[in-house]
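G., before I forget:
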Amino acid sequence: MPDQTLLGQFEQVVLGAVLSLGKNAYGVTIHARVVELSAPRGVTRGAVYATLDRLEDKGLLTSWLSEPAKERGGRARRYYRLEKSGEQALRESAEAAKRLYDTLARSLKGLAWKPLR
Amino acid sequence: METAALAPPPLLEWAVERLLPVPVRENVMGDLREVYRGPWQYLREAACTVPRVAASHAWRNANLPALGLNGALIWFCLGGLRANGEGLDTATIALATAAGIAALILIQMYGDAGRPSGARAIKGAIWTVGLVVLLCVWNFGLRYQRIGGADYLLEFGMLQSLPFVLPVLGLLRTGLLLQSDRQAEQLSASSPSAPEDDYRAFAASARRANRIESAALIAAAWAIPALAGPGPWLPAIFIVTAAYLLAQNLWRVEQGAGLRSRYRRQLQARRQLRHFLSWLWAAPFLMAACRLLVWPGYENGRAILVALGSSAIVSICFLARAADSECAGLLRERLARLEAGPAA
């Protein structure tokens, strides 16, 4: 049985987006943040929904519907929040990325951390 | 976030909504509306969103054992692996089974799973009786009817008695409606409890129902040959289904997935299982109607038997569908209850 907390690259981005948005994490804002984090690659809304579903199935996220909102034609928002296991998975992914970066920085000359902005 | 008064053309919005699976319509349609900038942008967004969302939903919520059992039921009811080689050929049966499974997946994604109102339920009964009358008139007008034969006078008597089918069907339908009304009341009266409590109560009642129904399925498997004929396949499906229900009670998926997600998926899986069970219970009666009434009627030129058989088939289908829609509606109410509150 594969480890449910092993994250793919895109899953890390989506989980990171949900974490950074805090209480305002729903479809529209998550997609906008994922596009921002994945630049210059484009990301479709459908890919974000499918990944959110998968992460929820893994137990890393939880979701619920809000009250209907007028500006959405009376439709509810589905809000997402990280579970403890999601935070842990994200932490492990970040540590693994850090180790990889450190290894590459030692081997590849000229590799330097450049913040996006 | 821009919240301009821009809104997609109603027809376009309606069309996109119809393409989305029912459980995700609320949030996805809202998101698409929120980012609306113009019809072309809306269409592009919908084209990039709907197929992925539909495929993801279908895959995540497919109850594969229930679909497999459904496939087996369709296959054997159409005469798959028949010893004497009469009737439909294997390729046709395989094609019909595949089409049946595809249709089931689509029904589960797009079918309106809400409980019908009393008026709608009774309208359904009236339409069913209308169809029964049409079938009778059609059958009496067919060539195999021997004028002046054994059923010549009976047919008029039967046509006159048809209106009395309506109260019977209406009564049965109302009984189903009242029973699920009572269950819905119990559900809403059981306090706005935490999802954990709801889930525990749901799991306990599902396990209880599984135990009772598996015992009933095993008992029914012995009685089936009297109704559906001597073939071993339908009793075998009953036994396998009983074993599957009992296995569900033993196999608890507690670890891994979060509670809400697990509960949501179990509700969806339960809905598909109930759908299958409604039709499984109907299958022996449908086969009996064909075996004892319709086919002998055709062979012996007795319109009354064909008319009775086809009326029985329509009525059984009506009741199976009614039982299924009541159960699906209750599960949907549970789902709505789960979705309503924020996570603790």
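The mean pLDDT of chain A is 87. The interface with chain B takes residues 4, 26-29, 31, 44-47, 49-50, 53-54, 56-65, 69, 71-73, 75-79, 81, 83, 85 of chain A (CB under 8 Å).

More on Monday.
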